[in-house]
Amino acid sequence: MNNNITGEKITFSKMELEEARTAITSLIHKCEKAKDKVKKNSSQETLLKRRIKALQISASLIEEKISKGI
Known about the structure:
Elements: H1 14-37, H2 43-67
Helix pairs in contact: 1-2
């Protein structure tokens, strides 16, 4: 993966990816709980839905990278 600003190659260890996956999974659960508490069809609900989707994509890409053995 390349840094968008500097163009430098960025690498991650398996442990770093696993820790990131754990943190992202935790954030997904927290956002889901928060979504249940906000008013339906509100901007807060829309924002949380979009954050959850983005975090799910991130978790999926990390899982894919881990399973491929980096």
